[in-house]
Amino acid sequence: MTAIKRLCVYCASSRGVQESYRSAAVALGTSIADAGIELVYGGGRVGLMGLIADAALARNGRVTGVIPGHLHDREVAHPNARLVVVASMHERKQRMFDLADAFVALPGGLGTLDETIEIVTWKQLGLHDKPIVILDIERYWAPLLALVEHTIAHGFAAPAARDFFRRVSRVEEVLPCLGTMPEPRIAGDSRLA
């Protein structure tokens, strides 16, 4: 069973078109704080990022945002989160990885897709063995899951690719799912070189 102290959530800097995405961000931020887990996220005050941070902070949760300087300077940084300001998007992803014990992907755009694919790829490459959960609100991630199946069917990924993450469809399933996943097997803090 994985002991999660810091949970990295990948999510959008916009609010999306469906209320269910916004409600999920609020519910997840609340449940993370109520469980005594620190939220690690992209540091924004806008979109789903702002909603999840606000919800965690409203429950006196610990919130760490990792944000590149160029976005901080555009005043999209959350004013109440503990911020780690980095030089680039690449450094942001690395720092979020270093801080987190596990990862959850909420609905989001190209940035969220990039972060989610990269963390799954790092797992495939054996660079970490931290738990990854895809929160598939109203089948938002169905095209990505179909693409994973497509890569397997065409011989570009092994069937084991299905095991690099777990899919849940409701916020209430996220923390219990993470709790049933095995501890990472890689020694040390699983940092990339």
Task: Give a quick precis of the structure.
This protein has 193 residues and is α/β, with parallel strands linked by helices. It contains 7 helices and 7 strands, in the order E-H-E-H-E-H-E-H-E-H-E-H-E-H.
Describe the structure.
This protein has 193 residues and is of the alpha/beta class. The protein has a single domain, classed as 3-Layer(aba) Sandwich (Rossmann fold), CATH 3.40.50.450. Helices cover 41% and strands 16% of the residues. The protein has seven helices and seven strands. A seven-stranded parallel β-sheet has the order 4-3-2-1-5-6-7, sandwiched between helices. Helix 1 links the parallel strand 1 and strand 2. Helix 1 runs parallel beside helix 2 and helix 1 crosses helix 7. It starts with 5 loop residues before the first strand and ends in a 13-residue tail after the last helix. The C terminus is likely disordered.
